[in-house]
Write a structure and sequence with these properties.
The structure is a single chain. This protein is mostly helical and about 800 residues long. The protein contains 39 helices and 5 strands. Strands 1-2-3 form a 3-stranded parallel β-sheet, with helices on one face. Strands 4-5 form a two-stranded antiparallel sheet. Helix 6 crosses helix 7, helix 20 packs antiparallel against helix 21 and helix 30 packs parallel to helix 32.
Length: about 800
């Protein structure tokens, strides 16, 4: 049953329902009538009639939103609830009438105006029905020029129906279509806008592709409040002039593209060019903090100077807030224009993945300030240097990235002396990036210093994103070195700043969640740590902090006694991030140490020893030194363990967790060597670190029996140890390790296997029987956990138990 749009003289709900009742009579659903003027009574009559029917009824209601008096929306929803045989199709201009439909739980579908626009195949079908000439690209061209709006497509098809196929057919086609669209726009769209008293408002806002209440107020130079402008936009939407943009978080409207371009054409033909208006729009957008949208409009105006200026001044904000639109905007700048501007070239290279040619201005910054031109070059050098360091970092060249980063702070100081407002605004973000660069290069102290400066700048300039980024970076650094109390302080700072929904938000989230997981593990709050780890999840292929995520998963697995799954996850993730798992990345020593610990927890002593033997200088990093020393002690090589522990430099950087774990290794090693005095001294120092930092987890790296012996021998008690003893007290590593030791004969047999000898040839070479060779092979396979020749050779190489000839 089809109910047409309400007539102008029937703009009350009661009159509308009388119309519906009349249509029910016409459709044969009922023969009754009603004479009441009361809307509730007439609505009740309609409901009663539809309730009593056993036939399914589909009501198609055209533009019920034209009934401005309230209550109709609620009545329609009640009708659906009370009449199970009834479905309703409603056509509206905008969703204002049913704005709360989702929250009511009504089963519904929404078809937007954009979904109803013509596609190229739709246009082709319309052309065929109109007997228009069949030209291959006609449908695509018409759809593009009209934006697929059905009314515009129809007038365009009519305009080209008798078009000749001349040599300049393309130009004539476009001209004819544009004329037809412009006539429609003038006679229907602008005429309606004038009838509503909003012609000047529509003309002014047409320069904006999308419009909010605030932006409309700015570009139309309206003296109305934002709320009043919002009402005007809603009225224009209800009249069918504006479309609502549902994809935006803020209420946003737009003129359909075909209509907008038509208005701009007519304005240009009347001598009102778009460049001046777009430039004014750009200024308003910059003032309101919408730099990326401002760049779009500067590019629309083809004002390359203004577009370049926006990129140079605001690339940092745009990189954070809307990286996709920044990338697409940069590609609209002609290459010959972009080539003259180093910052634009650098930002484009960051997106394109091309190497950046360094300006050379970083070599001797003090010489840059002889004149204004040199000062401008210094600003460019700072931006280019920062971008290049990020790009090198993303490609796994961490040492080069850190080397450039070291030179940027002094350059920034010199530029700031020139009172550069631009650099002052960009510097907090730059410092936050420098902190991440140092962090990924295993320079945690330098990272924390830069992050502190970034945090202070973020606070002073009220840039929440930077403050959060810096807080999470500092929290992660403290968590990594083993200062859980300091880490918690910075995690609380992070929570004071609101979430930022930009492209870089996952970086902040990752750092903070890894830091929280590690601090909870250090306090042995296992259940909370697991919940935080679940929230953290697994690293994506593009996650820069992927190694820290795997480290957190592995530490949790060691604490829970589930190392195998963590070892599998780590190896799979390392393979996925091989381009970033380079020798200058923190991921290499961090995950080498982690793998040794996981193998040790699995009892795979030989595999752990093989991996430890591949590390050239375990003392280069606290993580590898700690894991290798613990491994040596666990396999009974206490002297080698002590020698490694003594390589730790206590005067350079403070890593309390590594220091405490190395002291525990020393304590156990000295005890087993009979050096009770030295064992107690090392134990006492470890307990002091625990009391100062609150570290509980390192006590789980030694056996409970060793803890009892050392505690009984000590002359004072540790409060932190007492807390640890009240907990589960589970040890992370087993006492028994699987160590593969081959006899000389087994080494010889293994060597012959590598020469691909048969068992008969082996027997002749060794002067023994074939049965003896078979017996020796069984013993060899059992030790190597192998089932055949290839597996035995592979395992022997992996475990490094195969002697070279």
């Amino acid at each position: 049953m089809w109910v047409g749009a309400p007539a102008q003289n029937a703009l009350t709900p009661a009159a509308y329902w009388f119309g519906v009742l009349a249509r029910l009579r016409d459709a044969g659903v009922t023969s009754s009538s009603a004479d009441s003027d009361d809307v509730c009574e007439i609505f009740t009559t309609v409901v009663r009639l539809l309730e009593s029917t056993s036939r399914p009824v589909l009501l198609v209601l055209i533009r019920p939103d034209l009934i401005y008096a309230g209550g109709l929306c609620d009545q329609l929803i009640s009708l659906l609830s009370l009449c199970p045989e009834v479905d309703i199709v409603v056509t509206l201009s905008g969703l204002g009438m049913f704005s709360g439909l989702r929250s009511l739980g009504i089963d519904h579908d929404i078809i937007t105006a954009k979904e109803l626009r013509y596609t190229a195949p739709d246009t082709a079908q319309l052309l065929a029905q109109a007997d228009a000439p069949a030209v291959a690209d006609n449908a695509e061209r018409i759809t593009s020029l009209t934006g697929g709006i059905p009314a515009l497509v129809q007038v365009a098809v009519a305009a080209i129906k008798n078009l000749d196929n001349g040599s300049d057919r393309e130009k004539v086609l476009e001209r004819q279509i544009n004329r037809a669209v412009d006539r429609y726009t003038a006679h229907h769209v602008l005429a309606l806008a004038e009838e509503l008293g909003e012609l000047e408002f529509v003309l002014a806002t047409a320069y904006a592709g999308t419009i909010t209440s605030e932006l409309a107020r700015l570009v139309s130079s309206s003296e109305d409040t934002v709320a009043q402008v919002h009402t005007r936009l809603a009225i224009l939407e209800a009249a069918g002039l504006y479309d609502r943009v549902e994809s935006e978080s803020e209420e946003t409207w737009e003129l359909p593209s075909g209509i907008r371009h038509s208005i701009l054409r007519m304005r240009a033909a009347a001598g009102t060019g778009s460049s001046l208006h777009l430039s004014r729009l750009v200024d308003s957008l910059i003032d309101s903090g919408r730099q990326t949208l401002a760049l779009d409009y500067a590019l629309d105006a083809q004002n390359w100077t203004l577009a370049i200026d926006i990129v140079e001044q605001y690339w940092v904000e745009m990189l954070v807030n809307d990286i996709d639109r920044l990338s697409s905007g940069l590609r609209r700048i002609p290459l010959d224009v972009a080539g003259e501007h180093p910052v634009v070239r650098a930002v484009r290279a960051l997106f394109d993945g091309h190497p950046i040619v360094t300006l050379g201005t970083l070599a001797d910054p003090p010489t840059l300030f002889s004149d204004q031109c040199a000062r401008h070059s210094a600003k460019d050098a700072l931006s280019v240097g920062c971008i290049e360091s990020i790009m090198l970092r993303l490609t796994g060249r961490f040492e080069e990235s850190a080397a450039i980063t070291r030179r940027l702070p002094s350059l920034s100081h010199l530029v700031l002396e020139d009172n550069s407002e631009v650099v002052s605004r960009q510097l907090p973000f730059m410092r936050a990036q420098w902190a991440i660069t140092y962090q990924l290069n295993a320079m945690l102290a330098e990272s924390t210093i830069e992050a502190h400066l970034a945090y202070q700048d973020g606070l002073s300039l009220q840039i929440d994103f930077v403050a959060r980024a810096a807080s999470s970076t500092i929290a992660l650094n403290w968590a990594m070195v083993g200062e859980p109390r300091h880490s918690l302080v910075w995690l609380e700072c992070e929570q004071r700043h609101t979430d930022h929904n930009g492209r870089l938000e996952p970086i902040l989230r990752t750092a903070g969640l890894v830091a929280r997981t590690l601090t909870l593990l250090d306090s042995l709050s296992i259940d909370e740590a697991i919940r935080t780890l679940d929230e953290l999840g697994y690293p994506s292929d593009t996650e820069e902090l992927w190694a820290f995520v795997i480290y957190a998963h592995s530490q949790c697995a060691l604490t829970r006694g589930d190392p195998f799954a963590a070892l599998t996850l780590m190896r799979r993730t390392v393979a996925a991030h091989s381009h970033q798992h380079t020798v200058t990345s923190i991921s290499v020593p961090l995950l080498q140490a982690t793998e040794i610990d996981l193998l040790l927890a699995l009892g795979e002593g030989t595999s752990a020893l093989a991996l430890a033997g591949s590390i050239n200088d375990p003392a280069a990093y606290p993580w590898t030194l700690t894991s290798v020393a613990r491994l040596r002690q666990r396999v009974g090589d206490n002297k080698a363990a002590l020698a490694l522990c003594h390589q730790y430099s206590w005067t350079l950087q403070s890593y309390p967790r590594a220091q405490m774990e190395l002291l525990l290794v020393q304590a156990v090693a000295h005890w087993e060597l009979g050096g009770t005095k030295f064992a107690v001294e090392a134990w006492s120092k470890a307990c002091k670190i625990a009391d100062q930092t609150g570290l509980l987890r390192p006590f789980s790296t030694i056996a409970p029996s060793d803890i009892v012996r050392l505690e009984n021998a000590a002359t004072f008690g540790s409060q932190t140890l007492a807390v640890f003893r009240k907990g589960p007290g589970d040890e992370s590593f087993p006492k028994t390790l699987h160590i593969v030791t081959l006899t000389d004969r087994e080494q010889t047999v293994l060597s012959l296997l590598g020469q691909e000898m048969t068992q008969v040839a082996m027997a002749k070479t060794l002067y023994v029987s074939v049965n003896t060779v078979r017996s020796q092979l069984r013993s060899l396979y059992r030790k190597l956990d192998a089932h055949n020749r290839d597996e035995a050779l592979m395992r022997a190489h992996a475990l490094k138990v195969m002697h070279r000839a």
